[in-house]
Write a structure and sequence with these properties.
Elements lengths: L3 H8 L21 E2 L5 E2 L2 E6 L5 E5 L5 E5 L7 E2 L4 H16 L2 E8 L1 H8 L3 E2 L12 E6 L2 E8 L2 E8 L6 H4 L11 H13 L11 H14 L11
Antiparallel strand pairs: 1-3, 2-3, 3-4, 4-5, 5-6, 7-11, 8-9, 9-10, 10-11
Helix pairs in contact: 1-2, 5-6
């Protein structure tokens, strides 16, 4: 079982005393959100909801941690993770989307992804089936690297507390063509809108396009079975 504390202390300012309860990590999350206590979906206790409500994580009656798309008829899939691995995964996922120093790009081929993966170590958690069609997490010092496979299209995000922590990545001479990850920007847009922050009338870029699609779906009344909480 992984020791969460050394990882959390690299990624977060105020780390709780877990006291044998790794679920306390939920209180640190800034992107995804802990579900309201007592929320359930059939025999699954809902634990975490993705920022836009598109993905759900929970624990079934057998104690297995599970995930599924937040769509009608979607089936729960076991992550295969222990409680420590599951909450480490959530902490790392939050860190890679929220830490201030960031590199990201889409379209790397398999050889480029392998070169990147060879320079890092896998985090002790299992792959999830989202974002894309699946992702895996790696680390190098305080830096976290997320490699997403979207039906063969590889999307990579690396983040760290400080730019100096990504110097090794810059040394690989990869072409990182996005300053922010798509999900990070869309989530940030949603949080700013909830806080009443205005945005330019004509944003540009792929992230803005996805944010526009989200807004159009909302205007058209497209809803998710379980909305984000908090």
């Amino acid at each position: 079982m992984p020791d969460l504390a050394p990882f959390l202390e690299m990624w977060f300012d105020d780390v709780p005393d877990l006291r044998g309860d790794p679920a306390a990590v939920g209180g640190l999350l800034r992107f995804n959100r802990p579900a309201s206590a007592g929320t359930s979906d059939g025999d699954v206790e809902l634990l975490v909801v993705e920022d836009q409500g598109v993905w759900l994580w929970g624990r079934d009656q057998r104690g297995r941690h599970v995930e599924r798309a937040n769509e009608p008829g979607a089936q729960w899939r076991p992550t295969g993770e222990s409680a420590e691995e599951f909450w480490l995964h959530h902490a790392a996922f939050d860190a890679v989307l929220e830490m201030p120093a960031r590199r990201s790009a889409r379209g790397f081929d398999a050889a480029t992804v392998r070169r990147l993966v060879d320079a890092v170590a896998p985090l002790p958690c299992r792959p999830w089936a989202w974002p894309g069609t699946g992702h895996s997490l790696f680390h190098r010092g305080p830096a976290v690297v997320m490699v997403c496979d979207d039906d063969g299209d590889h999307w990579v995000v690396a983040a760290a507390p400080d730019e100096a922590d990504l110097a090794w990545l810059d040394g690989l001479d990869l072409s990182c063509d996005e300053s922010d990850s798509l999900w990070f920007v869309v989530g940030r847009v949603a949080r700013e809108e909830r806080a009443g922050v205005s945005r330019p009338a004509n944003p540009t870029g792929r992230a803005a396009a996805l944010a526009g699609r989200v807004a159009r779906e909302e205007r058209a009344g497209v809803s998710r079975p379980l909305a984000p909480v908090g």
